[in-house]
Specification:
D-Maltodextrin-Binding Protein, domain 2, Arc Repressor Mutant, subunit A, alpha/beta, about 20% strand, 13 helices
Length: about 300
C-alpha cells in the first residue's frame, strides 16, 4: 500500500466514480480499478459496493477515507514545507555585541521582509563566543569584529568600521587638532576586558608602538566605559558604532587620532557548512548594508 493508492482511493471516493477519478488523476481507467483491487486485497476488506454502474463506499471505505484524507493532507503539507524550507525554516545567527546592537536588527528586519515565515534565532555575545558557536554548529552564520582563530572557519569582510578615542567634555586633549596614542596613554584608560575583539585590536595598536598600558578600569560593558568617560574617570578607545549616539548628544568628545584605527566587520561560517538559499540571502543583505555605509576593506 502506497501513497499513490491513497490518492486514487480518495479521488474515487470523492467523485463516486472510477471514470471521473481516472480523468481527474490523468490515469487510465484500468489502472485506477487495479489500484482499488490492490488496496482491498492488502487490507482484506471491501471498500466499495458496485451496484449497477455506480459504486458506493462501504462503512469500512468511509472509515478508511477519513484516514486517507488525513494522510494525504499531511504528505502535501510536508512537501510544501520541505520544498520551501528556506522560506519557512529557521536561521540561526550569532553576532558580537557591537554588531548585534547596531547592525543585526536592521539586517533581520530586511530578511523578514523577504521571508515573513522564516524563524530567526539570534545569539549576541563576544566575537570569540560566536566563533565557538560556529565551530560547534550552534549557529549557521556569524557577524564578528575580529578574524577567526579556529581552523575550519571561513571569513569575508562585509563592512569597514573605525575605533575612535573618546574623552569627557572639557578634557585637555579635546583642545588638540590631532593626538597620538602615546599622548592618549598618558591619561587613565578605561578598556574592555581582555579577549574581547575591541580590546585585542587596541592592545595590538599600542604594542606596535611599544606603549605599555595599565587600564584604570576594565569592563565587559562598553556602555559602562562610555558612562565612565562621561563622568571624567578617564579616556577610552571604542568602536564608533557604540559611541555614535553619545557623541551626537554631546555627552563625550571624539579625539582626532593622528593615525585612525580601522578594522573590518566580518561574516563567518564553517567551511563545511552547506549554504542554503536563506543563508546566502542573509549574506547578501550584509554585503549590501556594508556597501551602503562604505565598502568593506579587505585584510
Amino acid at each position: 500500500m502506497t501513497l499513490r493508492h491513497m490518492r486514487i482511493f480518495v479521488s474515487v471516493f470523492r467523485n463516486g466514480s472510477v471514470t471521473k477519478a481516472s480523468r481527474e488523476l490523468h490515469l487510465a481507467q484500468p489502472s485506477v480499478s487495479l489500484a482499488l483491487r490492490e488496496l482491498e486485497d492488502y487490507y482484506g476488506v471491501c471498500l466499495f459496493e458496485r451496484i449497477g454502474r455506480r459504486i458506493y463506499p462501504t462503512d469500512c471505505g468511509k472509515e478508511l477515507y477519513e484516514y486517507a484524507v488525513h494522510v494525504e493532507g499531511l504528505f502535501d503539507e510536508m512537501e510544501k514545507r520541505i520544498r520551501n524550507w528556506d522560506a519557512i525554516g529557521t536561521l540561526r545567527v550569532g553576532a558580537s555585541i557591537a554588531i548585534g546592537t547596531h547592525i543585526l536588527p536592521e539586517l533581520l528586519k530586511r530578511l523578514q521582509q523577504k521571508y515573513p515565515e522564516l524563524t530567526v534565532k539570534a545569539t549576541i555575545g563576544s566575537s570569540r563566543s560566536v566563533e565557538r558557536d560556529i565551530e560547534e554548529n550552534k549557529v549557521d552564520l556569524g557577524l564578528v569584529e575580529s578574524s577567526p582563530q579556529l581552523e575550519g572557519i571561513a571569513i569575508e569582510p562585509f563592512m569597514a568600521d573605525e575605533l575612535c578615542a573618546i574623552a569627557p567634555v572639557g578634557h585637555p586633549l579635546t583642545e588638540k587638532e590631532e593626538i597620538t596614542l602615546a599622548e592618549l596613554a598618558q591619561y587613565p584608560m578605561l578598556m574592555r576586558e581582555k579577549g574581547s575583539a575591541g580590546r585585542d585590536i587596541v592592545d595590538a595598536y599600542f604594542a606596535l608602538r611599544e606603549i605599555r598600558i595599565e587600564p584604570r578600569w576594565e569592563s565587559t560593558s562598553s556602555q559602562a566605559i562610555v558612562r565612565g568617560v562621561e563622568e571624567g574617570l578617564g579616556v577610552a578607545v571604542l568602536p564608533f558604532l557604540l559611541v555614535k549616539e553619545d557623541l551626537e548628544r554631546g555627552r563625550i568628545i571624539r579625539l582626532p587620532l593622528k593615525r585612525p584605527i580601522r578594522r573590518n566587520m566580518n561574516l563567518i561560517w564553517h567551511k563545511s557548512k552547506f549554504l542554503t538559499e536563506r543563508m546566502k540571502t542573509f549574506m547578501d543583505l550584509a554585503r549590501e548594508y556594508g556597501r551602503e555605509r562604505g565598502e568593506a576593506q579587505m585584510p
